[in-house]
Amino acid sequence: MATLFPFPTATSELKLNPNVEMRSRPKGKLGSLILLDLLGVVLMLMGLRQQFHQQGFLPEVLNVSYAGVMMLIAGVALTLPFFIWSIKASFGAFNKSVK
Q: Which residues cross the membrane (predicted)?
C-alpha cells in the first residue's frame, strides 16, 4: 500500500523479524554516566562560584590561584562521556538498516 508519508514505521509497513535479537546494553552504564554527569555539573558550578566569588567553597589551604578554572575543566571532563554516549546513541538510529 502506497502512502504519502515517507517513513515506513508510521504507516506500519515495517516488517520486523522475530529472530533478530535486540542489542543489549549494560544496565549499569547509563546510570553511572548520569551520575558522572551530575557530579561534573556540580563541580562546574562550584568552580564558577570559586572563580567569581571572593569567598569560595575551598578552605584557605586549597585556595590556590586558578582553582575555579581547574574545577571547571574537571567538571567538563566529567560531563563529556555522557554527552558523547548520547550523541552516539542518537545517530545510531540512523545507521541501522532494516531488512
A: 30-52, 64-87
